[in-house]
Amino acid sequence: MPTTRRRLVVLTAAALAGMGGIVPGQVAAASPEAPVKQLKILILGGTGFTGPHQVRYALARGHTVTIFNRGRQHEDWPGPVEELIGDRNTGDLAALAGRDWDVCIDNPTTLPFWVRDAGKVLAGHVGQYIFISTVSVYASNAQPHADETAAVLPYTGKDPMAETADTLRANMPLYGPLKAVSEAEARRQFGAETTVIRPGLIAGPGDETDRFTYWPVRLARGGEVLAPGDGTDPAQFIDARDLAEWTIRMAEQRTFGTFNATGPAHTLTIRGVLDGVGRAVQGDDRLTWVSEKFLDDNNVSAWTDLPVWVPGQGDTAGFARRDIRRALAAGLTFRPVGVTAVDTLAWFRQQPADRQAKLKAGLTPDREAQLLAAWKAHIRG
After folding, report:
1. CA–CA separation, 365 and 202 (whole Å)
2. Cα–Cα distance, 114 to 167 (Å, whole number)
């Protein structure tokens, strides 16, 4: 089934994951230097994609870290980490009761009742609540350079607090609206001490979606590589480590408000991404740029079959042109594309053979070869 731009908006919201007006309000720039005050940090989750990077960075900066999760994944931490066990699906938050922290970072929440229940236990017991949301909350991706004041998706179901992991899996387009409701619930529970961070595509070592990983792996393999469009479409993403470290610095600075968190700081095109990744991984590759129309005609999906890329016009003209000036003013920084590519490839090559055998995003080698052959026949007429 062809992935039209309008359909892509829905798929992206389900799967997640410039210049413009600055949101009013003062933003204190965070410093990457060592913090002055040691914080007591509670991280809900802590063992997923960004959580371990947050924990390690916080420990390196002298903070005391507590993580709360179901205890199903274990990490080797470089310092002492208190681990509390509970289950937000069942409302088991007893381990958090009667405790105080300077900041709570909520990483995994997609369900509003998780925020509501956290508020019942933690409101008044944390000095700042940082909710990790997503740019998938936005109602439209058509407007380039839209900032944090852009409209978010409405929830149109019966009761957002009744939604569960099962109902979300059965209706993935609810992802963006439920994140938006969760943001509102965070502000209701924690008031002015709330920080909402809306990342775009998160990349880097540890990514289990392969939505960025496809390109370092593919370009390192070399040969003729199918590249989408004409290379001029914009691209935005953020390394998980940059997101995690900035989140900790936001806690150190007690920076409140809502922030788009994607990058880099300069305008980046899909050609820039692939050129940067290719140079970094030193693959013997040859890029063949294939038109968007040909890809649509051959049922090739942006974002999934060809990750990172979306068309830079029409309904997705603003998808990779989100305004990030508030985050930049608050100290968000970025690793070079090549660093993310090399580190991601090194991580991927350490995975088990069966994990490496089949990427979760991108074209299979056979499908890519078929498309390249069809493209050459097409342009020959």
Report:
1. 24
2. 14
